[in-house]
């Protein structure tokens, strides 16, 4: 009697979104990317990515935020799997993504799915990747992907992919205002270049004031240091976001910024009760499409479910 081939049990990885507490954009490099100095924080909005052995490569996307995510080879999760296939002799997988991270919103949702897929494949096929191998694959897929594996609070340099730990105390509470439609990250960087015109842009260096604020664990201190060099470009492409930022501050946020390249806006609040109040006020105001509350820092991509039966 011949036994059936062993099929590994599907693996589900939960991966967070990110917000940039500081995003300093330097000059455009010869490779087209911009030199960055950024501080990332992983926040508790999650995608769950389930990877299962399959006859053919494929990806499906579900959940209330799934609209607009490609279910083909353009999907960054599937690109991550195909990249792993070029390095290791692995069989095809189907990837099922349940989206809780806003799409094209400046919260690295696509990068998160790529990060989750790398971690899931490592478990599914027992690849035994070490931290460095994972980071190398991750940075090939996108500037934010290594951070979504690491999670927590970290500084990013290079084009964002070179990580260094940051000493941060406490838990911070956020309200994210989701916007209608998305913004293309390359378009926002291009607009940033256009607005700066021929200005001589210095190489970005992290500010000491943000690092000190993070050591206090005090949201008031952090709120005063939030900054995003892409904000002017996002507002230029989406002038309606200025109204959202103003509403958030009016209804009690300690600080508000465009998240990454936008159009999601991020509001830092005093505590979780203040988060509920702000979420209710923003929803009632009618200036935002939808809101999400979250806290950070949280862990990076991690396995939440692997059936062993
Ligand atoms: O690395 P990732 O694929 O996430 O970047 C998306 C786009 O954002 C790039 O193609 C580039 O236009 C822009 N970008 C940039 N400088 C960075 C990171 C991203 O210009 N440091």
From TrEMBL:
Coiled coil: none annotated. It catalyses: 4-CDP-2-C-methyl-D-erythritol + ATP = 4-CDP-2-C-methyl-D-erythritol 2-phosphate + ADP + H(+). Residues 75-152 form the GHMP kinase N-terminal domain. SUPFAM superfamilies: GHMP Kinase, C-terminal domain, Ribosomal protein S5 domain 2-like. PANTHER family: 4-DIPHOSPHOCYTIDYL-2-C-METHYL-D-ERYTHRITOL KINASE, CHLOROPLASTIC. GO terms for molecular function: kinase activity. The keyword Transport does not apply. Residues 210-285 form the GHMP kinase C-terminal domain. Pfam families: GHMP_kinases_C, GHMP_kinases_N. It comes from Ornithinibacter aureus. Its EC number is 2.7.1.148. The active site is at 18, 144. InterPro entries: GHMP_kinase_C_dom, GHMP_kinase_C_sf, GHMP_kinase_N_dom, IspE, Ribosomal_Su5_D2-typ_SF, Ribsml_uS5_D2-typ_fold_subgr. It comes from the Bacteria. ATP binds at residues 102-112. Pathway: Isoprenoid biosynthesis; isopentenyl diphosphate biosynthesis via DXP pathway; isopentenyl diphosphate from 1-deoxy-D-xylulose 5-phosphate: step 3/6. This is 4-diphosphocytidyl-2-C-methyl-D-erythritol kinase. Catalyzes the phosphorylation of the position 2 hydroxy group of 4-diphosphocytidyl-2C-methyl-D-erythritol.
